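Run log // design_07
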């Protein structure tokens, strides 16, 4: 009976003796890794959905913001049309954005944690950054914690 108790005690203590490892962190998917696993059609549909939703949301938000401002302040300084002039533009073919994102993640694998939304903003008409400029801005080494 003592041997059986000893065997169970040892068996139950094995997880305590083996150093734990954070498997979730080690295998957590990155946006870049996911992007590169997707097929061309999925990438294209992602960009199409993002750009359409982003611009539509911005468009609608301008109407709400102007309405709320005029209700609370009585001011009509900001017009819906003026606000909508600032909507980020994506004038290139959507496939060009797909290609830029793919090239970015392939060129800079250390940047796979850079969000797709950040890359799409970087490649928009308003920012129009190159791959190198985007890497310099978003690279992990660029995110230094102030002392």
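design_07 sequence
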């Amino acid at each position: 009976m003592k041997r059986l108790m000893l065997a169970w005690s040892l068996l139950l203590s094995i997880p305590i003796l083996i150093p734990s490892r954070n498997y979730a962190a080690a295998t957590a998917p990155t946006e870049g890794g996911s992007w590169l696993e997707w097929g061309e059609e999925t990438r294209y549909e992602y960009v199409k959905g993002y750009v359409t939703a982003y611009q539509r949301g911005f468009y609608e938000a301008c109407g709400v913001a102007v309405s709320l401002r005029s209700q609370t302040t009585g001011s009509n300084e900001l017009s819906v049309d003026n606000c909508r002039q600032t909507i980020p533009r994506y004038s290139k073919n959507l496939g060009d954005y797909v290609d830029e994102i793919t090239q970015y993640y392939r060129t800079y694998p250390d940047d796979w944690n850079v969000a797709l939304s950040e890359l799409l903003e970087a490649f928009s008409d308003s920012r129009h950054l190159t791959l190198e400029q985007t890497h310099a801005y978003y690279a992990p080494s660029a995110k230094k914690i102030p002392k």
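The chain is about 65% helix and 0% strand.
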